Amino acid sequence: MIPRFEGKVVIVTGAGTGIGAATARRFNAEGAIVVLNGRRESKLAEVGAALGNDRFMIRPGDVSIAEDVENLVGDVIGRLGKIDVLVNSAGAGGAGDFMTMPVQGWRHSFAVNVDGIFNTARAALPYLIESGGSIINVSSLCGIGADRGLSFYNASKAAVSNLTRSLALEFASKRVRINAVCPTTTLTDMTTPVFEQYPELLARLLTRIPMGRAAQPEEVASVIAFLASEDASFVNGVNLPVDGGVNASSGQAAFI
């Protein structure tokens, strides 16, 4: 593997599990110094220990809390002196009936999925401007469309997708590229137990994916790494589906 990120400093939020952990591994394998951020220090430590080298920092914190994010960025700059890439992978799910889901679920979805990106972008952008770096947000297909029963999640991820576009327009002239990935059903630490308990749910979801399977976290991580690399030097403001072809469909019935 060509070390496209040799000497680069990459912050990954939500790095303890799932797409975030896979992304941390990918950047580290390509030579980056990876800053692992998440709420559970034990999970971050597991990811760090498995990297097999010392090119990582563990900085626990909650992205929905501005002070935590400011401390994270301050620690990174104090120790490493720069930030080249910010990957916003921390996220919150939630499913249910719109009329009965608790309002706290709405607040939590926006606190993590939207406020988290607001906080990290505000704190990191001055340093990304210096380095000519990039931000990759983990949105969702629910950020460019909608699924029934996911109203809170749909709304928060739509905000992520349009915030990505807005920031891309604003900071392009300052040499910072900002993009997002929009995965479909992905087999992560969070989703796998649900699918094991409700296999009919996974089967129903897979019928909508032309490739006939769910994504692996590593497949999303590879697209994130592409967007952060010089291979994507003229890609900006994109919400890129990583979905096995779901977004190619009109949603109507198949005729063959």
Structure description:
With 256 residues, the chain is α/β, with parallel strands linked by helices. It has a single domain, classed as 3-Layer(aba) Sandwich (Rossmann fold). The protein is built from 8 helices and 7 strands, in the order βαβαβαβαβαβαααβ. The protein has a 7-stranded parallel sheet, sandwiched between helices. α1 links the parallel β1 and β2. α4 packs parallel to α5 and α6 crosses α7. The longest helix is centred in the middle third of the chain and has 29 residues. The model has no long low-confidence stretch (mean pLDDT 94).
The end-to-end span amounts to 40 Å
Largest sheet composition: 7 strands, parallel
Q: Count of DSSP helices?
A: 8
Q: Write down the domain tally.
A: 1
What coarse outline follows from CA principal-axis ratios? globular
CATH superfamily: NAD(P)-binding Rossmann-like Domain
Roughly what percent helix?
40-55%
Gyration radius, rounded: 18 Å
According to CATH, the fold-level topology is Rossmann fold
Number of strands: 7
Order of helices and strands: EHEHEHEHEHEHHHE
How confident is the prediction overall: mean pLDDT? 94
> What is the C-level CATH assignment?
Alpha Beta
* CATH architecture level-2 label: 3-Layer(aba) Sandwich
Secondary-structure class? alpha/beta
